[in-house]
Amino acid sequence: MNEIDDLSAGELQPYDGGGMPTLAPLSPSPDSWGQRTDLLTDREINDYQRQPQGPTLFGSQLPTGTTQQQVDQLLAQLGGSFMHDIGALGYPPAYINSTIQFFTENATKPLQQVTRRHNFNLHGQDDGLGNAFGNMVAQLSGTQKAKQSFVTVAIQWLSKVNQKLSGQQQVPTAHGSAPNSAEGLLGQLSDRDYNRVIEINKHAQANTLNYLAAKYGRYNSQEVMRLANEYLHKLPEREQAHFDQFTTVNGVSWVHMMNTPETVEFLYNAAIGANNIPQDGAGLAREIAEFEAMLKIPSERQKYMRDPQLQARYRQLLTLRDG
Question: pLDDT tens, 116-144?
Fold first, then answer.
């Protein structure tokens, strides 16, 4: 995660107000202000002393004087980093975009209790922010296993961000994942190896996208990826697990299967029923004629416009006919 490696709490320089403290009182405070503890219970005093004093990000303390503009800039950097890092592992864009929006809206909020409405293993992050995140992911489409995998990797990523922000040396790794699954293996890696795997998969994903763009066109290649991912997350959990693995491509290890063109095309072809597409000219002409007749009926055309898989099959038929 090269983007994250360049971030540290030291880069957030305190605001210089010309010697005037932030929110300075208009007149001197009485000497006894804040010293009367007999009006508070011991528990209230302890709770107050345990609370972070000053701005926080995901519960980690930021330097006193950090401005909102600096926080916004940092969140934008983290959002871009999250998109590149987690996207490189093949997770659906809808999951990634929803999480970035969640981060942006909740990163600086004070920690508070949240009613748990999900069944995810949060790997020890069962605080208000963790449960709020789990509740958000629970509302996304997909199987429980697919969403749990995403939650696990997102928590691992966020733990590493918090390490950078707080200057800690050790990062708690996620437990409870299948040891041979992608997230289980990632959880066993050192920071250096983890970052290297992310870089490998960024390159693998870029190569796959270039391959698909050359074959299907730039716009259609995005549809190929989207339909492949949607089909994957509709499969039974046991079959999904088969694609949640690392493989070796051209001598390079640690490439996630969803970042290989072979896997993407396999799932895409399964989504559009490519195995029963006619291979002869007469068969192609017959099915294309059926599509053209269907598109002349307004109600059927509306169904077609709402069905990306049907649209992709029609495009494939035309490609085979004209190719």
Answer: 899 998 887 778 888 889 999 999 988 88
Average pLDDT over residues 97-126: 83
The residues near 90 (Cβ < 8 Å, ≥ 6 apart) are 201, 205, 229, 256, 257, 258, 259
> For the chain, first and last CA: distance in Å?
42
In terms of average pLDDT, the best of 33-47, 195-209, 218-232, 279-293 is 195-209
Supply the pLDDT for residue 133: 92
Side chain identity at 104, as an amino acid letter? T
- pTM of the predicted model as reported, rounded to 2 decimal places: 0.46
Residue 107 one-letter amino acid:
A
Q: How far apart are CA 277 and CA 300, in angstroms?
A: 21
φ, ψ for residue 185, nearest 5 deg: -70, -40
Confidence of residue 65 (pLDDT cuts 50, 70, 90): low
Which alpha helices (DSSP H) does the chain contain, by range? 2-5, 42-50, 68-87, 93-106, 128-138, 144-166, 182-186, 191-216, 218-232, 237-243, 261-272, 281-295, 298-305, 308-322
Give SS3 for 255: strand
- Helix ranges (H only) for 167-217 are 182-186, 191-216
Closest CA to 294 of 307, 281, 282: 307
How would you classify residue 254: left for phi > 0, otherwise alpha for psi between -120 and 50, otherwise beta? left
Burial class (CB in 10 A: 0-12, 13-18, 19+), 266: middle
